[in-house]
Amino acid sequence: MLRKIISLLLLVALSLAPLHVHAREEGMRFIRDAEIEYYLRALGTPIFRAASLNPSSVSLLIIQDNAINAFVAGGMNIFFYTGLLQSTETPDELLGVIAHETGHISGGHLVRGSEAMRDASAQAIIGMLAGIAAGIAAGRGDVAIGAIGGSQELAMRNLMSFSRAQESSADTAALSFLDKTGQSSAGMLAFMKKLAVQDMLPVERQSQYVRTHPLSQDRVNNLAHHVEASPFSSAPIDPKFVTMHERMKAKLLGFLHPQAALLRYTDKDPRLPARYARAIALYRTSQLPRALTLMDGLLKEEPDNPFFYELKAQMLFENGRIKEAVENYKKSVALAPDSALLKVSYAHALLESKDASKIDLATQNLLDANPLAEEALAKGQEKAASEQAGRALKSLKKGSPYWMRAQDIKLTAETDPND
Length: 419
Prior knowledge:
Elements lengths: L1 H13 L14 E4 L1 H17 L8 E5 L6 E3 L4 E5 H6 L3 H16 L5 E2 L8 H8 L4 H4 L8 E4 L10 E2 L2 H17 L5 H11 L11 H5 L4 H13 L9 H18 L1 H7 L7 H13 L3 H14 L4 H12 L4 H14 L4 H13 L6 H11 L2 H7 L3 H14 L5 H14 L5
Parallel strand pairs: 2-4
Antiparallel strand pairs: 1-2, 1-6, 3-4, 5-7
Helix pairs in contact: 1-17, 1-18, 1-20, 2-4, 2-7, 2-11, 4-7, 4-8, 8-10, 11-12, 11-13, 12-13, 13-14, 14-15, 15-16, 16-17, 17-18, 19-20, 20-21
């Protein structure tokens, strides 16, 4: 019976939008990771504001692929390939990419779809992302909360392509955003210089970013001239972003290429990012005791880091140590109460504990993380709200606060406004 309750609760919390993606080949994988998404959001928010965009309206999405690429699609959605994230040496370089892609958004540039778009639109990708959270319910994740495998070959090759004129326009906008926020554009120039050397290579040998974002020496020259003239070119980036960037790269390498991580970050390397990557790599290679020892050391060093608690919880959860996982997820949520991803993981661990007394707490976190019924009701989708609330009523303890909450939603949704 409890298993049925768990399924119902997860259905209420995770069934966001129907998936309408039909592609011919397999290969696209999306990643959800609370820590990396927090970093991208913190780095990008000033840029979004400078572009007169509502930061909360810009979605930052991660695709697991070694290719160096990033693109915008489906409105205000920026997609980053893990290959690009790992190829940026500094947060300044990644900031330049974010500013450039924001330039495409603010410029309203139309996206020309490639052959892959015949079977699935960019908007379908966005719809698919709504189902990513369901991977959490499966109890398996390759990067923090998880890399969710899909059967969507939607733009693995040349998904988006822009004209050189649009690229120059996006550059100009990016430089203005960086100046408005008092940040250096030197990182943007450095990254473009690295890519520019590929412009002379045969197309098949160029990175996807070069193929989808046409480069020219004029673009690089314009960036260089701006760096020379800008009063902010020597402005240092916030040191916290340097720390976040190092940890992001270490984390991605540890999860996606654990053997390479163990070779790069040896046990003689005392730096925190090295120990972080090593802990992840050891966990990914079934060396849990050693991984947990490293995590305990990291937590001793940073006892208020929610993402360290989250990672330790994931390690424990995926190895059947549910009670210990619950305690660590609880601490991670307490330290980062605004993270929906952490709340969903915490709720899942509570439900898997098979403790009926924890159902209300799990439901609270699920609803807080993804208040589907309330959202549906607010958007006038009374039928959907009623159905979702009805599922919850079947699972929750009658008279509990969350049972009453669901009942109120159901009654409101079914009330005829003309009565």
